Amino acid sequence: MKPQPDLKLLATFLAVVRHGSMAEAAVALGYVPSAVSQHIAALERDMGIELLVRRPGSRLILTAAGRSLAQAAETLFDATARFQDAADGIANREIAELRVGTYPSAMSHLLPNVLSTLRARSLGPRIRLIDVETHEGLPKVKSGDMDLLIAYRYLPEDPPTPSEAWTITALGREPLVLVTAAEPGRRRPVELAECLEREWISGHAHNADRRLLHRWAGELGISPQVTLETEDLHSMLAMIRAGLAVGLIPATLLGGEPAASGVDRVVLPPGGAPLHREILAVSRPGARPQVIDELVTLLAGAVESVQP
User: Fold this and answer.
1) The pLDDT of residue 85
2) Of 10, 30, 43, 234, which is the most exposed, with the fewest CB atoms less than 10 Å away?
């Protein structure tokens, strides 16, 4: 027996089973009756067993093997039809699920409203969110495990950098705000000079936010003492709010007014370059499903609305 019967022969066999005769199957298929007979004979040779009992003057009778093959063939062709429908949908950008990676603060502060807006427009594909930092997500975009990555970049030389492995779309710049614990009743702004002898909090020594902090401090000629290290921005904000440190916090986490988050904004010296991090969308090269373009557009609007 061949490893897999010829699908054309199977289709002819099913037509015979459904119509009850080779002549009627030939009409339905647009074949001459002898071609149908030859197909059945070839299928039986391939299978090595009789499938139909042929009796002159009576309708064809299926053998036990014929009944089993007919049931299996029905299942096969039904699955093939479903596969074709799915393939056609994919070709027309009808995707069942998209995997979107995003860093934690974007998941908690940018994406909820964006996804609610997107869902209200149409059902679309299911979006599976994956909490992942930028450096961990880039290889997943390259391998195809993720369809889109919402990323950040503190310094221009940091990844993601231009590559044939992905397409980068700039969503905007998120301001970074230097903050300290709010002091009840304080009326005057907090000056940078007041913070230089305090403890500071930032990422680990080689993290991008820590390198940005030191580059910025070097331009101002100051040397902040980072004694608290964490990669988690929410933990960083909690430590600052508790009065334990001073630190740079993305404006997204502070909302419209830093004081509402239990911190006061530190006034920076005039003339310095604004502190920010770039927010980027990273996807594989080539055409993207429409829903990804819609998601990227909404995210760009969300980033633009963020103010320090």
Assistant:
1) 58
2) 30
